[in-house]
Automatic annotation (TrEMBL), chain B:
One Pfam family per UniProt: Fer4_11
Keywords tagged on the record: 4Fe-4S, Iron, Iron-sulfur, Metal-binding
GO MF assignments: 4 iron, 4 sulfur cluster binding; metal ion binding
Species for this entry: Neobacillus niacini
Name of this protein: Fe-S-cluster-containing dehydrogenase component
SUPFAM superfamilies, sorted: 4Fe-4S ferredoxins
Superkingdom: Bacteria
Start and end residues of each 4Fe-4S ferredoxin-type domain: 3-33, 39-74, 76-105
Amino acid sequence: MQRDKFFKEIENVIHPNETLVKTHCSYCGMQCGMNLRVNTKTNKIIGVEPRYDWPVTVGKMCPKGVTAYQQTNHDDRILKPLIRDDASLKGTKEGFREATWDEAYSLIAKKFGELQDKYGKDTLSVFSGVSMTNEKCYLTGKFARVALQTRYIDYNGRFCMSSAAGGFLRSFGVDRGSTLPWTDLHETDCLFIAGSNTAECHPTSMFRVWAVQERGGYLIVADPRETPIARRADVHLDLRPGTDLALANGILNLLIQNGHADAEFVNNHTNGFEETKELVKEFTPEYTSEITGVAPEKIIRAAEIYGKAPNAVVMFARGIEQQHKGVDNVSAYTNMALVTGKIGRPKSGVATFTGQGNGQGGREHGQKSDLLPGYRKITNPKHVEEVCQVWGITPEEMPQPGVSAYEMFELMEQKTIRAMYLLCSNPAVSAPNLNFVRKAMKGLDFMVCADFYLSESAEFADVILPTVTWSEDEGTVTNLEGRIIKINKAQEPLGESKPDWQIQAELAEYLGRGKYFSHLKTARDVADEFRLASKGGYADYYGATWDKIDKQDGVFWPCKDEKDEGTPHMFLDKKFYHPDGKAKICALPYRPPAEEPCEEYPLRLTTGRVVYHYLSGNQTRRIQFLRDMCPEPYVEVHPVTAAKYNIEHEEYVRLFTRRGEAEYKVKITEAIRKDTVFVPYHFGHDKSINLLTIAALDPMSRMPEFKACAAQIEKLELKKVQ
Amino acid sequence: MKKRLYLELENCIGCRSCLAACTQCGGHEERNRNYVYDVNPLVNRQTMPLMCLHCVNPACARSCPAQAIQIHETGAVLSALVEKCIGCQNCTIACPYGIPKFDTEQNLMYKCDLCIDRTKDGIPPMCASVCPSNTLQWLTDEEIEAKQKQFNLDNGKWVTSMPYLEGETNVRVNLPGILQGVTKLF
Ligand code: SF4
Ligand code: SF4
Ligand code: SF4
Ligand code: SF4
């Protein structure tokens, strides 16, 4: 269906005594196709072979993907349930002993029961993630609300995709990460990419990005750093961290002034134009430049190119979303497409680069504090009714909405929440303001962690349940296009490890809630119930059967029934999902970052990823090749700034903010603003940059402002002498 | 149809997936045989791969006193034969790019064999299969010719195999700067 000029028929190499299992990468939202090489004698995964026939990535993989298979039979795998009896050892790796599943389940049921008897049902919490299948994400929501009967469930998408979700819901009335398939990208005439280090975070998009330029199209990149993609951009908008809203308003103003607004589209298919036009008038190139630090000529040139382009795609990622105005940034950049009418047709549209493998699907099916499967709302009685029918509970039994990920730690601090069931996430590295978060985790009465490695967060647990890696289970994930794809099982679970859905179904039995889960014996059973639960919601997966996914190279949601082939392009009929069918152009006043530089903290600290590591690094830091390539974090500093502090390349310095401090090796580069320093966030313990970041939350998405806070550097005199 | 490794250096994003992939090829014993360099590390993020160019008349093989470096019928210049290599490292010195690597423990040279277990059957090498930026590609001569026409460079250095280096190479290289000849759409 979406086979394009990059697609070639290529045979795979199959070595003797080996077979290939088609699947996708375990990591980012690109979900590159790959074949796992399995030894047919040992039935173990032993390597990787490109999957040339996957239309999105045609065999390509970044180094994380190439080495992903090494996770499964890794020496660090947890093979049996672990219990720690001595709570004083919390926060360390010490004191765990092996136990049987029965002992672990019994202990969890006992502790959870005691706490709930004493403090009420809502004393329990579930902290989840979206680097796992839709089936697991779906069941985790049900597990929290039906088995644990608590309102407190949320997930790490609050640190990842929630601003994009909030912005799209406001602008379009629907949250599908991309309005068009990736196979359109190389055919557009202009890519406007804001806050995405695409070459490192979504590398396999790059051959399509470069192809736009090869055809004579344009690439515009907004980023405080000259990232590998910005290096080749036609215009690099090198803005101050946290000033995107001004930049987007400034460009929108020029688009309108220069006559690039599509009056017919605006009149027929949008609301809010006049009000927005008035608001952005103030954002002249000069004023925008004052706020953002980007030269006025660059802003003018960028607006001219985007305005003139017959087709254009606006894209963004965590750079604009991980701000306390992330939702506004998303809607502001989306305004560019809505005002010019460059949306709702092939080769034009808006997309976010979804961070986690299932960042899209995982946020749609009820792991978010206020959502139920199919993107239903827990505050909508009709929605609750629909889901209750599938779950077999009464609407009265449905818990109330909970709070967002970071706010759960605040409730732990306040002892409203006394226990946590953590899975598929490592908040002891990935949450902001870590001194506070780690203290909150340490203070819990009881904590369970389900993981396949002993993560930094697992160090706070009383019980660790060994889960499987992605290749020891099957199910679907939804990639960054909104395409539902199939992850296949390549090997039996190592040791006594089990998939999360099975653990939750079994634990439900011990919690006395078995009757709601005991019919779920296989991943496919969960899939069938999940499709039914999503049916009728606007993220409708009912028609996306595993067979259809296989036959069609994935299915784009919405896909309502057996005959529906899915929806690769959104809004082709120019119908948006708000009740009046119109999209919303949003008038968004500028707000500066929550913490602006001052005399004491004169630098802007921003954080992000490197190509070799994924999220908290719990997986990738254990892979030899990736660790060799990037063994430790560093702070990127412009040479002019470095000279001011009298610090040199590869020297260690103390970096600190109002919340915390850490020591980092200096990496001097001219490819960053002079007022900004950058540290990658994949590292644990005293190397975590999130010890320093600020928990200023977006009012709508509750996304913390990872991307901008005020910091200071101090030279380590002693070390220098040594 | 004969295909060749083709490099478009301007595209490189420094992800080093080519290095990771090289460890995955059959017979590579999980050691990579290619290189990626930061072109100007303290200044910008430009990187480039350094690959064996599979010279038509390879200096590495010519310099080998033990005839350990064989040339495959496809033109691929193979890694040293284990039983013949004497570990003198002449090849590394002779190669204009210093490509052959040396295993001090085994006293043995190893180098890029163009993933011969794949390319002998026309299957792209591992590095060119995975390269996310299309810096490394596996193309037919016709496709390469089309590239040459598309990127009409003004410096006349479309191929790096300059006479004063090593003469003709089986691998084709497109130097940085390919975009300078592109006509913009609007
Ligand atoms: S991490 Fe992302 S880009 Fe890299 S191989 Fe995996 S899915 Fe592809
Ligand atoms: S895989 Fe390609 S883009 Fe990545 S470092 Fe190698 S040549 Fe460069
Ligand atoms: S590039 Fe070097 S190693 Fe490769 S064939 Fe030529 S001389 Fe030999
Ligand atoms: S062609 Fe094969 S052996 Fe040579 S560098 Fe690429 S992956 Fe390694």
